[in-house]
Amino acid sequence: MIEQPNDDAREREYPDPHEKNRPVPRLVLLVVSALLVWAVSYIFLTQRNDAPELGDQRTLSTLEGKPAGAGGAADGAQVYAANCVACHQATGAGLPGVFPPLGGSEWVLAADKLPVNILLHGITGKLTVKGTAYSGQMPAFKDKLSDAEIAAVLSYVRANFGNAAGKIAADVVKAERDAGKDRKDPWNGDEDLDKLKQ
Ligand code: HEC
Fold this sequence. Notes:
The chain has 10 helices and 4 strands; from the N terminus they run H-H-H-H-H-H-H-E-E-E-H-H-E-H. It is mainly alpha-helical and 198 residues long. The protein has a domain at 75-197: Cytochrome c-like domain (Cytochrome Bc1 Complex, Chain D, domain 2). The strands form 2 sheets. The chain has a two-stranded parallel sheet with strand order 1-4. The protein has a two-stranded antiparallel ribbon with strand order 2-3. The chain starts with 7 loop residues before the first helix and ends with a helix. The chain binds heme C. Residues 83-84, 86-88, 99-102, 105, 107-108, 115, 118-119, 123-125, 127, 129, 134-139, 141, 153, 157, 189 line the site of heme C (HEC). Heme C binds next to helix 5, helix 6, helix 7, strand 1 and strand 2. InterPro entries: Cyt_c-like_dom (IPR009056), Cyt_c-like_dom_sf (IPR036909), Cyt_C_IC (IPR008168), Cytochrome_c-type_DH (IPR051459). Residues 177-198 are annotated as: Disordered. Keywords: Electron transport, Heme, Iron, Membrane, Metal-binding, Transmembrane, Transmembrane helix, Transport. Residues 71-161 form the Cytochrome c domain.
């Protein structure tokens, strides 16, 4: 006769699981619905404190980096940093053999109209600066910078990098811009600019 396995093991186990009716406790329901009521009323009852007068007070011109106020007077240092640094460097010393220095340059320190015309129309060809010949391309800024910006950046250059020459007025830039309004080409280095010097 085959012996049946005894039931001990089965008896030792837990009873088979079965579903019981376990309702969510009243207290939990109460807490959840109280939270819900609080959340909804919070949205409707809370005072909005994002009134515009409490927010960011900066004007558009501040964010654009232009000083606020009368027509946004140009800041020469800023114009320089945005338009000239890549070539003439933050020190104004240029790069030997490639970009000429602005510090102590006879072109920067010449009569107002000379640097103004250099910025308006740009330069190509051979240009001698402080005894060294360069032959690069100086871009024209007449379509990029306003009269006030050209005046400001030149005034900045003439007062920094060891230079101590006078400011340049926006009127001078305007006059030279008008005088050269038909000019399309950049100045041809020493050849053109030496003539302008006289
Ligand atoms: C893409 C490079 C480049 C940028 C940007 C540039 N320059 Fe020049 N600049 C030159 C080069 C190159 C020359 C020399 C041109 C030549 O050799 O014919 C020059 C010449 C000059 C000169 C006459 C020579 C001297 O050293 O004094 C002045 C003044 C000058 N730049 C001012 C400026 C100012 C101010 C700005 C910014 C508004 C500016 N440049 C932006 C490349 C640049």
